[in-house]
Amino acid sequence: MDVLLQQLVNGLILGSLYALVALGYTMVYGILELINFAHGEIVMLGALVSVTVLGVLVAAGVPVPLALLLALAAAVLVCMATGVLVERIAYRPLRNAPRLAPLITAIGVSIVLQNLAMILWGRQYLSFPPVLAPQVYAWHGASVSNVQLLIVAVAALTMGTLLLLVQRTRLGRAMRATAQNREVAGLMGVDVNRVIAATFAVGSALAAVAGLLIASYYGIAHYNMGFLLGLKAFSAAVLGGIGNIPGALLGGLLLGVIESLGAGYIGDLTGGFLGSHYQDIFAFFILILVLIFRPSGLLGERVADRA
Among 41, 58, 75, 268, which residue has the fewest nearby CB atoms (within 10 Å)? Predict the structure, then answer.
């Protein structure tokens, strides 16, 4: 029971990160039906920018809370600008092109961003500054650190803010209208281009928050960190029902728990052969099953909630 509780805790922490990244995929797909494979690189960019700015501020003696806020603000600004620029230059001209063209373009943008990051930051791993003194809390045999609790709290606050934005604001209504039918939304006075650009900006801001949290969770940032992370987050979005915001949240949490339980229990049963080094197997195996038996995802039928 202690092992089960610990693995569930680990899975929920990891799943909250997957869900945060998956929201960026599902928002763009909900409006454009475009799989933005460059989103993982936006997360990577947010991680590298936040770690770099945070290291400079901490070395300059700036108080830790202020340094974290400034690093997050810098990452959000850079990621939002990058997301809007990518949409304007790479995706908007191909909006009416065959669906394969934007997909190939998204892969190309991902490669470009990855190589630009390698040029700017190099191939080495960047260490996350030790800004918080580690404290571990134990409960019924399971342990969780203060950093992990902070990660879950920030991720939950960010996802809750997004839900309020989509459901309660004028921009959110425009997003939902555009997701239902772009042409009709345009006839009703919605500036479709502006809404799509705003969707990329919001999704990129979420990616910046996720980048900072992921860098703090693993303690490192790297130019190549966005590739596999993006694939897993996309898998989480498909698992829950891509284009559906509650589905992305559910899919991310489930994927994190599945990975954690698979690495913990199946790894032990196989003598470590399928342990933590092969935890990606469990995530993509579940994804294959979902695509076979429920291609629309767990909540895929709730199209009215799409962003």
Answer: 268
